[in-house]
Amino acid sequence: MTTTTPSKVTTPPSRGARAVGATADYLDQRTGVGHAVKFFARKVFPDHWSFFLGEIALYSFVTLLISGVFLTLFFVPSMGETHYEGPWASMNGVEMSEAFASTLRLSFEVRGGLLMRQIHHWAALIFMAAIVTHMMRVFFTGAFRKPREINWLVGFVLLILGLAAGFSGYSLPDDVLSGNGLRITDGVVKAIPIIGSYLSYFVFGGEFPGVDLIPRLFTVHVLLVPGLILALIGLHLVLMVMHKHTQYPGSGRTNSNVVGYPALPVYAGKLLFNLFVVFGVIALMGATMSINPVWNYGPYDPSPVSAGAQPDWYMLFLEGALRLMPGQTEIVLGQYTLSLNVIIPAMVVPGVLFTLLALYPFIEAFATGDKREHHVLDRPRNRPFRTAFGVSLLVAFFILILAGSNDLIATHFHLSINDITWAFRVLLFVGPWFAFWITKRICLGLQRKDRELVLHGHETGRIVRFASGEYIEVHKPLDAHERWLRVQHEAIRPLEIEPAEDSRGVRRKGYRLDSMRQRLSQVFYEDRVEPVTPTELEAAHAAHGHHAEVEAVPEAHAAPELAGAGRGAVGGGQHLVDPQDETAPDTRNR
């Protein structure tokens, strides 16, 4: 007796499927792209809304490239003189540069030209805003720590290049507003000691405004800066993939794993969706919100300078610094004049602020002496000095931005511009200090609140009276996941160093550097709140044992006997929850 197994009917692949498969096989055999696709498809990325900030910057730059190619086809980067004849009647017969005339033609005669101009400008503003907020997220969460210090510097250089791209871009139309900004730039360049006047002649091709500036700015704007930004974005993404993505703290998340979604298909689908969202929002803004109407300003003329002339928001801090600096602060040394009223606000103040921002990761690493890799982010409250320092920097920039609009504040609120200027001068010194102090106090208060919650639980507002007459408020204990979040951080203490002299009275080599590091470490970490230790948690549960007489606490919330509770590590709050506990989430990549 024989049995026959029914054969499975297979449908032959279609011609299109065979073509796609053959193409993929051809490329894989010659480029090895299959291994790269397999690697990226299996790579896990954590999920959090703040990671979208970097994507906004990337997609805004893509929008800038697309719209910039369109504008390049019609813009004429020339300072040659011409007379405008076109649909904008108020400008007919007016003498202007070819750059300004081509901007008017782009706005009124090229189909879709005005839309593309406004999309390009809005994308530039959003690009800079996204870079700034993305760097704020990286700074406050400590994502710049080892091994990402180089990537922090790459992001910082991208910020500077974004400033250069924006400045060179809005100067191209050669209107009154951009011309006034270029005149300020000329003054700043000339204020550079010794080489200022020579550098100005080189940049402008002669005495301001010269005839070469617009073509040179055009080359910088469409070729040099975008090329550098593209290269650094590529480097930034490569370093991110090499180091793996940081993730926010939580039970199950460690420095040796990543909890998130695979690149394909989940993360790739989200990236594509976010791209369309960002592009759609920018296109909607360009279609409905007017920006930089150069036809209202007119071509550049050095004689009219009106109130209310401000650059884009990301350059306002420099404008504000110049407006706050008192005049008549010049020093003559031999044959050279040092214009401190320009050098200090335009070079010293931005130089100090940007230098502190760029070097902060290395300063913090020097203060802590920590050489380990960090892939789990900090909660800002657990690093009071860093959070307070970042807020003080932001407050300083915000004050300078407001100072750059002191004339608008005066006219809109009917105030004295002199009083406003003096108020901002005082705030520039007092505001960052006060912001540092109050932010640090808030962070320490939040840490104390975390200790209180871990030791005693959440207040329920339920008052119970015992037979003995005692009244207590019933507290709801934290579950394992919330407790882990509030105690997983390390208590970094100021460094301790060896004495200045050894046992024989010989001064130790390198003591001065160690002493400086110790003082810096004390500034960073002298004020701190220790996380709850297992011993403290056991003592708190023992003290609150009579709460069990009121009601039985559910198993999900009652965990006085934890796997790591007997380890007793000082400052070892990270041992209060065992990642392998059944109540803790799986530590494997998801």
Automatic annotation (TrEMBL):
A Pfam match: Cytochrom_B_N_2
The EC number(s) this enzyme carries: 7.1.1.8
Gly residues biased stretches: 565-574
Start and end residues of each Cytochrome b/b6 C-terminal region profile domain: 250-445
Compartment(s): Cell membrane
First-level EC class: translocase
Residue intervals passing through the bilayer: 56-76, 119-140, 152-172, 218-239, 271-291, 342-363, 384-402, 422-439
Gene Ontology terms: biological process: respiratory electron transport chain
Catalytic activity: a quinol + 2 Fe(III)-[cytochrome c](out) = a quinone + 2 Fe(II)-[cytochrome c](out) + 2 H(+)(out)
Domain Cytochrome b/b6 N-terminal region profile: 23-249
Cofactor(s) annotated in UniProt: heme
Entry annotated with the keyword Phosphoprotein: no
Annotated protein name in UniProt: Cytochrome bc1 complex cytochrome b subunit
The species this protein was found in: Cellulomonas fimi (strain ATCC 484 / DSM 20113 / JCM 1341 / CCUG 24087 / LMG 16345 / NBRC 15513 / NCIMB 8980 / NCTC 7547 / NRS-133)
